[in-house]
Amino acid sequence: MKSRLLCLSVILAAIGLAGCDRIDPNSPLGKRKAIYQQMLDTKEDLGGMLRGRLAFDGQKFAAGAAKLDELSRQPWQHYPQVKEEQSDARDEVWQKQERFHELARALEQQTAALVAVTTRKPVTAQGVAPAFQQVEDACEACHQEFRIY
Hints:
Layout: H1 2-18, H2 28-50, H3 58-72, H4 92-95, H5 97-118, H6 125-146
Helix pairs in contact: 2-3, 2-6, 3-5, 5-6
């Protein structure tokens, strides 16, 4: 009986500790991570259409581009003045805020340009691919400077 109680205590402690690294979804970090995940999911679907993983559908691509554009304007408001302990961002986000915001605006410009390309009918993979690449390049530029991998 004593060993069962000890075993149960160890299991409960492990479960409790496993939850310690969880991120509060209502915290600034939780909110921006959720937005970034939506951006990634949307970008992966768009990229999948361009790379043949998914069937290309111009209407779905245009809707995805619009969603990505909307999302690209949202995470920046969820960066507090002081870095959180769990953040995946480098200290430079807070030390070089002007550059960080410059790259954020560049992403917003590229997602808007992608949406503009989707207004030209018919929407084709060849027609949208260069603008989509510019969006991916804007994401990568910011990650190179400000994300801890």
